[in-house]
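Example record for the data management plan.
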Amino acid sequence: MSLITSSIGQGLLWGILALGLYLTFRILNFPDMTVEGTFPFGAAICVSALVHGVNPLAATILSFFAGMVTGLVTGLLYTKGKIPVLLAGILTMTGVYSVNLRILGKANVGLLNKNTLLNGQLLQKLPINFPTIVVGLIIAIIVIVLLAVFLDTDLGQAFIATGDNEKMAQSLGINTDNMKILGLMLSNGLIGLAGGLLAQNGGYADVNMGIGTMVIGLAAIIIGEVVYGNLSLTARLVAVVIGSIIYRLILLLVLQLGFSTNDFKLISAIILAICMMLPLFEQKFHTRKLLKKGVEKP
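Corresponding structural encoding:
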């Protein structure tokens, strides 16, 4: 039971990262490789602040703003420097690695005997792993509500229009470059926040902890879409977080089958590949219609 609650808690925290990735991958419709640098950057900022006695809530908020900085750098390289977004993200990710080493002073820094957002006195009264679930659920709800409100504003609609049809958005007087920068900042802000939260949950920050995070976020997005199909935008945000939880439970199942934790990256890639091919199978074999209506007899 403790393994299941642990997976749910981690799924909620990883869901924050998936929500950030959703803004660029689905709404702006381009891949952002900054993710794998932003995640450990948010963790490094948060852990460094906690080690120096900063309030856990303030340290967590700092991780969000740290992520926004990396998003801003990528956005400026992409829109003003005219560097392809994929390469801009890789450049930022590469540079941030050295910044993380400067912040932490070494490759890995722990949080032993340090106050965090997950070990407050009130939360310690809860059963094991439930503090992570409570904090993850509260933050996920706050993020989803704020994103839903933002996307329903004129600015949010301009942001969506930029991803749907950039030329049409420009013809309506929307500054699409600003929208892209805004999207990258919000996306990476949430990814940095997830890094700070997961560093507190794991009890450490490591400069290499960002490896594979993009695959994890994409897997959560695709699983949420495959499981729930066509949804409203707000419901899709919820589905992304649920997809993240399902993904962690799938990994737990794989672990129970006897696989090593060393295989997780490979398994993650396989799960993502399968999930991304499901819409193709659905289109070819009409599986969703068969599930809903049953196979008609000739």
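Summary line stored alongside the record: The chain is about 75% helix and 0% strand.
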